[in-house]
# Entry
Amino acid sequence: MLDESRKSDSQDGDFVEFARAGMPAAGEYHCSDCGYGVTIHSRLPQCPMCSGTTWEQTAWSPFTRATKLL
# Structure
């Protein structure tokens, strides 16, 4: 019974995958501690604002910036 609940929890789409400082990455990320944002094309750094080491990748869409400007 517990195994079934774990399966359904992982499939509901609410899981956020975090990346660690030093991992190879490309794209936009936000620090999971303070929200500081970076665009990276190599390895994730330690957060320059709070020294955090976990990052969350920002969902990308070609229209994301356009809607922020309106």
